[in-house]
Amino acid sequence: NAGVFTYDPGFTSTAACDSTITFIDGNKGELLHRGYPIDQLAGKSHYLEVCYLLLYGELPTAAQLEDFEHRVTHHTMLHEQMVNFFRGFRRDAHPMAIMVGVVGAMSAFYHDSTDINDPWQREVASIRLIAKMPTIAAWAFKYHIGQPFVYPRNDLDYASNFLRMCFSVPAEEYEVNPVLSRAMDRIFTLHADHEQNASTSTVRLASSSGANPFACIAAGIACLWGPAHGGANQACLEMLREIGTPDKIPEYIARAKDKNDPFRLMGFGHRVYKNFDPRATVMKQSADEVLELLGVENNPILATAKELEKQALADPYFSEKKLFPNVDFYSGIILEAMGFPTSMFTPIFALSRTVGWISQWKEQLGDPQMKIGRPRQLYLGETERDYTDIEDR
Ligand code: SDX
Prior knowledge:
Pathway: Carbohydrate metabolism; tricarboxylic acid cycle; isocitrate from oxaloacetate: step 1/2. The structure is a single chain. This protein is mainly alpha-helical. The protein is 53% helix and 3% strand. It has 17 helices and 3 strands. It is globular, with a radius of gyration of 22 Å. The structure holds s-citryldethia Coenzyme A (SDX). Residues 194, 197, 228-230, 232, 256, 264-272, 321, 323, 326-328 line the site of s-citryldethia Coenzyme A.
C-alpha cells in the first residue's frame, strides 16, 4: 500500500462466510442461537437440546429430542483400540495435547466410513463427535492424573456421565449431584457456539479443502488451546491466583494498561463484544450458586475476581476501550470449585464447542457454492529484484 502495488479493494476475502446459526451484536452484548437469546437457552434449555437446535435449526419436539438423546447416548464409547493413543502420551501431557491427538486419530477409525458428500454420513460423524468428546476429555483427565478410565453409562444424562467419568473411582460409587450436573450442563451450553471465532474459522477453513471432519475438529481444538482464545479460562484462574488478594489488584490493572508490558487481564476484552459478554453474566450468577452449594461461597478467588471486575470497569482505560469480562472470566472459578484442575478448563471448552464447530462444518458442506478457503494478503514485501551471488553479498 506504499503506492508500489495497487490494492484491489474489490476482492472479497474468502474467509468471510454466510451463516444462519449464531448472531452476535457486540455493541449490545447480544448472542442468539438460531434466534434464541443465550440467557433463555441457559436458563430454560439444556445442552443436548441446544445441540439439536444448532444442528437442525429448530427446537426439537419431545419425540425428536428423545431420539437425538438416544443416538448420542449410544455413541459415547470409543473403539477400544483407541486406548493405546492415550497410553502413548507422557503422564504429564496437557489434556489438550491428548485431545488434539486422539480426535485427530479418530480419522483412522471412523473416517474410512465417512463420505463427507453423503448427508447421512455427515450426520453420523456429527453424532459420533458430540457423543465421544466427553469420553475423550474425561479419559485425557484420568490419564493425566494416573487413574483408571471410567466407561460411559447409558442411564446418565450427558453432563452427569461426564462428571462421573471424571470423578468416579473403582473404589467407591460416584453419587451424581444434580445441581452440579445442571451447572456443568449450563457451562456446556454457554460455550456451544460463537459465530466465526478463531477456532470455528479454523474448522471451516480446514473443511473447505474436503478434509475429514475428525481432522477438522482436531484443528479447531488446536486453535482453541491458545491463551488468547479458549486457553484464557485456564490463564484467567492462574492470573487470579497470582494476584492473590484484592490489595494487589491495582498493580495488575496498571500492568494491563502499560503498553510496554505484555500482560493482559485474562478473561477481559473480546474481538467482538464491546459490551458485557452475555455468557459472562450468566456464568457469574452460576458461580455464586455453585460455590454456595459447595459451601465455598467465601472462596477468596471469587472475591478477588469480583473486586478485579469492579475496579477494572471503573477504570477509564477499560471503559474507553470497551473492555468487559468475557465468557472465560468466571468459568474457571466454577470448574475449580467442582474439582477440575486448571488444565481441564480448555478441554471442557473444546467438548462444549464441538457442536458449534460441527454445525458450522455441516452448514458449509451443505452449500453447493462452497469453494476452498483462500484468505488474501496485503503484500508489503520487496519489489522484484535479481539474485546476488554469495561472493557479491
Ligand atoms: C474467547 O472470538 C470469539 O468469539 C472467542 C470466544 C468464543 O466463544 O469463541 O468468545 C472465546 O476467546 C474469549 C476471549 C478470551 N481471551 C482472553 O480473555 C484473553 C485476554 N483478552 C485479550 O487478549 C483480548 O481482549 C482479545 C485477544 C480477546 C482481543 O484482543 P484485541 O482484538 O486486541 O481486542 P481489542 O481490539 O478490543 O483491544 C482494544 C484495545 C487494545 O489496545 P490498543 O491497541 O487500542 O492500545 O484494548 C487492549 C488492546 O491491546 N486490550 C486489553 C485487553 N484486551 C484488549 N488490554 C488489557 N487487558 C486486556 N484483556
